Amino acid sequence: MSRRDLYDVVVVGAGVVGAAAALAFARDGLRVALVEARAPQPWRADAPDLRVYAFAPDNAAFFDDLGIWSGVVAARAQPYRAMRVWDAGGGAPLVFDADALARRELGWIVENALLVDRLWAALAPAGVQLHCPERVRELEQDADSAALELESGLRLRARLVLAADGGDSQLRAMAGIDTRVRDHGQSGLVAFVDHGRPHQATCWQRFLPSGPLAFLPFEGEGGHRSSIVWTLPEAEALRLRDIDETAFLLELDRAFDGPLGPMASVSARAAFPLKRQLAETCLAGRVALVGDAAHVVHPLAGQGVNLGLRDVTALRAVVRDASRRGTDIAAPSRLARWARVRRSENALAAHAFDGLNRLFSNDAVLPTLLRGPAMGLLGRWAPATHALWRRAAGI
Questions:
Q1: Which CATH number goes with the domain that contains 47?
Q2: Do 119 and 144 have their domain in common?
Q3: Which of 67-71, 97-101, 128-132, 301-305 is the least confident region?
Q4: Calpha distance 141→284 (Å, rounded)
Q5: What whole-number percentage of the chain has pLDDT above 70?
Q6: For the chain, what is the mean pLDDT?
Q7: Could you write out the DSSP letters of every residue in 243-262?
Q8: DSSP annotation of 39
Q9: Is the same domain home to 123 and 216?
Q10: Which string of b and e fits 76-93 if b means at least 16 CB within 10 Å?
Q11: What pLDDT score was predicted for residue 26?
Q12: Of 57, 165, 146, which is closest to residue 102 (Cα–Cα)?
């Protein structure tokens, strides 16, 4: 096999995590191909994407290293300087404050479509070979490489293949990796809402017996617009998605209980089912799983895409070290430790978010009496709040 016939890395799936992985490895001088079923629609400032992320500082630094973060910020990225979390059952709020943590900001609220748009614009100049629209039909592996046969008949062979094709990953199934799934019986309702008082560059989250309701500050409208993520039982989420605007705003006002004043208007609404899903392993031969292909977590902490990008940065460090040593970048023995560490980190996060959701999403007497005061006590212990934020921020 000639060097020309062999890629260093082939990435399947070109969402935020997959496109970032392809760009990162190309920036490191590797020969990279990227396979994606559908090209994304161009980002438009006048049509904000309902899917937004609370982007952490470590991943902002990663995107800065890739050369695209300044373009994201210039287009639209809302920094947030505080987080306030409280329980509807009572007790003091848990507060994270940028000044107290000696930070200019705690993170940024960014649209999925904007991140994908800026990543895709950087792929071709970096030398990434993009195959789109295209799907994987077959996977074969031997000791030295993995080969993908695409639906067009094209065959790609690589030292390392990354499955970044989402929670329903076909490549994960082809690699023979099973998953453990827990259906939460809940859905996440998302929309943009305009409200009477400014958001104060703050993320607000109120725990209700039905599930958490988060308001994430969004750029524009003089600080009077937020993105909401409302966790609800599935049937209730669908009902609230479909009722008229006036009725929806009344119910949202009642659920949030006033910190941002009366709700003035709401955008189109969407709902998506929530589950916890963990792959049994992140590695099978020369196929590595990253992002939602490896783990799907509850959105209450806004960590999904952050965890996926941390999969990539950790893998990049391993590959860089192998390249410096002149050894095989994807030898299974080399990647085994990466796979164990990432599986452990992601499982810990997934179970923690699941536990928090189960603790707060009920109206049982004892948890209701204890959780609010416990949260307030935690908020008054500075070392604990600093440690929690540093873990979420990846620093």
A1: 3.50.50.60
A2: yes
A3: 301-305
A4: 10
A5: 89
A6: 90
A7: S-HHHHHHHHHHHH-STT-S
A8: P
A9: no
A10: bbbbbbbbbbbbbbebeb
A11: 98
A12: 57
Which one-letter amino acid corresponds to residue 59?
N
Classify burial at 181, counting beta carbons within 10 Å of its beta carbon; exposed 0-12, middle 13-18, buried 19 or more.
Answer: exposed
pTM here is 0.91
Separation CA 297–CA 312 (nearest Å): 17
- Residue 215's nearest CA partner among 76, 60, 85 is 85
Whether residue 350 sits in one domain with residue 262: no
> What is the domain extent for residue 222?
77-111+185-274+364-393
So what's the pLDDT on residue 350? 85
Tell me: do 152 and 205 sit in the same domain: no
Task: State the total domains in the chain.
Answer: 2
| CATH code of residue 209 | 3.30.9.10
- Residue 178 has a CB neighbour count (10 Å cut-off) of 11
What stretches of 199-303 show up as alpha helix (H) in DSSP?
Answer: 234-242, 245-256
Question: In 3D, which of 280, 284, 29 has the Cα closest to residue 140?
Answer: 284
Tell me how far the alpha carbon of residue 288 is from its chain's centroid. Answer: 18
User: DSSP string spanning 297-311?
Assistant: --GGGS-HHHHHHHH
Q: What is the pLDDT of residues 116-173, one digit of tens each?
A: 999 999 999 999 999 999 999 999 999 999 999 999 999 999 999 999 999 999 999 9
Residues 103 and 248 in one domain: yes
**Comparing 352 with 192, which gets the higher pLDDT?**
192
Torsion of CA 351, 107, 43, 309, to 10 degrees: -50
Least confident of 52-66, 227-241, 370-384: 370-384
103 and 214 belong to one structural domain: yes
101 and 202 in a single domain? The answer is yes
Q: What is the pLDDT of residue 94?
A: 84
Averaged pLDDT for residues 225-243: 97
Q: Beta partners for 232?
A: 187
- The burial class, CB within 10 Å (0-12 / 13-18 / 19+), for 28 is middle
CA pair distance 366, 377, nearest whole angstrom: 17
Do 165 and 259 sit in the same domain of this protein?
A: no
Cβ-based neighbours of 341, under 8 Å, separated by 6 or more: 314
Separation CA 349–CA 237 (nearest Å): 25
Query: Comparing 71-75, 107-111, 237-241, 299-303, which segment has the lowest mean pLDDT?
Result: 299-303
What amino acid occupies position 330?
Answer: A
